[in-house]
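Q: I'm writing up a methods section and want to include an example of the input and output format. Could you take the sequence below and give the corresponding predicted structure tokens, formatted cleanly so I can copy it straight into the document?
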Amino acid sequence: MPHQDDGYTFPLLEGITRTPVRYPNRYGLTIAADLYHAADLDLTVSHPGIVIGPPHGGVKEQGPGVYAQQMARRGFVTLGFDPSHNGESSGQPRHITSPELFAEDFSAGVDYLGTLGFIDRDRLGVIGICGSGGFALSAAQVDHRIKAVATAAMYDISGVAREGWQHSSTPEERQKALTDLAAQRWADVDAGEAALSPTFPSAIPDGLDPVTAEFFEYYVTDRGRHPRSIGGFTITSGQAHINFGSLRHLAEISPRPVLMVTGDVAHSRWFSDELFEQAQEPKELLVVPGARHIDLYDRPEAIPFDALERFFAESLQ
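A: Here is the clean output for your methods example:
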């Protein structure tokens, strides 16, 4: 269970207001989110807003809230959300992962912020943490209302599904994966429900590889554990990610600015390095000394909030 009595994995900062909200995405699903702003914010004038997505498999009570309250402290109105079919957001079956839906959830957050009387619709940005980094970039490729994009410890989930870790998959391996997914669909049909990939255990086992051990350090211990963040997704979701592929239109975000934040010892750093090369100006790559992947989920001393404040203050003028 979360180590906060209020169900969150972090304490709410003094002087910050957090309000649970609900709104629809364009598929008619109800998105559960938390709206943050400074308690003394002047609501009679318009402010910039930022939509913040969680790591792949995460929920709003984890990393999104850490980012949201810190950016709210710096004068932004922020929204941390649960992706469709996950957390407290609606959608059946539960625990689908979808590149289309998860990108749409960023646009739905923009929709919601734009309904608030104290938001300037021309000053809206997004932050994607881990897997949401790829989905945030995907949303910005086609949604010109998103004026600036920041990613933190970014993963391109769909790119890995199609091409493997650091593009290591062969065409034969991809076809084998699709054959396995086809068999899984028949298994789901026969069972009457969608099977899930493995979920997080109750305790950290021995003998883990370094990347899995790092994720378990966050999701399985009191640091980040949450009952709605289970780690598993419907297995057949893999078809959508393989079909979607990588971020093919990344360059088209320009001339809107992109900031990619990663750690110099993060196992995911190669995503940011590679996609930064593909992005067009204006763009910025910020490498945090000594930061691992999960340190950019929730460690205020590692997350460069001052740089994020500068980026969005300049981008959302």
